[in-house]
Write a structure and sequence with these properties.
Low-confidence stretches: none
Helix content: 40-55%
Order of helices and strands: EHEHEHEHHEHHEHHEHEH
CATH topology: TIM Barrel
Number of domains: 1
CATH superfamily: Aldolase class I
Bound molecules: 2-phosphoglycolic acid
Strand order of the largest sheet: 1-2-3-4-5-6-7-8
CATH class: Alpha Beta
């Protein structure tokens, strides 16, 4: 059975002081939940990662970054490398989020370079894929997402896939309050599993986690998570509210 995963993507939110408060609240809350077959990850902004790592040292909450560069070091002003993230206690990194694709022109090629470098540095990669509303309305959503998956994972082998998690996040559902229905999400997750099987074989496909993301909250999470191919969630807005985030974690256990 695949272990489930709930990851909170804080995006560009929370100062250091605000982060401290939220991390402490989440930590206290998660301590009271019996985390059965589920991992919890939080992905604060870079500026709060070291603090998170200090505060969560002896907890069962893991830390992820929201982005990474594809070289280990060098003259790349403003970038952060995978060794730097490892060094401060990051275990996960989100790569290819639609906001990076949209606002920073990240291409499948660039995303693939990042995935390869992050894996070489022993980070677990949460690779985001997802179509825009326009693409869905033109009925090319399956093709687009399959392309993002295939190109993003180019030159990765079955062994590398042990550290890859896929997050399906339809762009039209991110931050809009419009969630994909459990059936819509499940349809895409099933397609993704077929694509993974074509690329890496049945066994890898069966063991790979596929998360859903896009306006997940405490009211819709239970119905999404009970779908057979949805292995957890990448949570944006609701991960900034302790009560909502804890309820979402609860909903995957129950
Ligand atoms: P949202 O964001 O939950 O606020 O829609 C999800 C994400 O972008 O990861």
């Amino acid at each position: 059975m695949r272990k489930k995963l709930i990851a909170g993507n804080w995006k560009m939110n929370k100062t250091l002081t605000e982060s401290k408060l939220l991390i402490q609240e989440i930590k206290d809350g998660v301590e009271k939940i019996k985390l059965k077959n589920v991992d919890v990850v939080i992905c604060p902004p870079y500026t709060s990662l070291h603090l998170a790592s200090e505060l969560l040292k002896n907890s069962n909450i893991k830390i992820g970054a929201q982005n990474v560069f594809y070289k280990d070091y060098g003259a790349y002003t403003g970038e952060i490398s995978a060794p730097m993230l490892k060094d401060i206690g990051c275990e996960y990194v989100i790569i290819g989020h639609s906001e990076r694709r949209q606002f920073f022109n990240e291409t499948n090629y660039l995303i693939n370079l990042k995935v390869k470098n992050a894996l070489q540095n022993n980070l677990k990669v949460i690779l985001c894929v997802g179509e825009t509303l326009d693409e869905r309305e033109n009925n090319i959503h399956l093709k687009i997402v399959d392309e993002q998956l295939t190109l993003g994972l180019k030159e990765i082998n079955g062994d590398g896939m042990k550290n890859v998690i896929i997050a399906y996040e339809p762009v039209w559902a991110i931050g809009t309050g419009k969630t994909a229905t459990p059936e819509q999400a499940e349809e895409m997750h099933k397609e993704l599993r077929i694509s993974l099987a074509n690329l890496f074989g049945e066994e890898v496909s069966e063991q790979t986690l596929i998360l859903y993301g896009g306006s997940v909250n405490e009211n819709n999470s239970f119905n999404l998570f009970k779908m057979p191919n949805i292995d957890g969630g990448l949570i944006g807005g609701a991960s900034l509210k302790t009560e909502s985030f804890l309820k979402i974690i609860q909903s995957i256990i129950n």
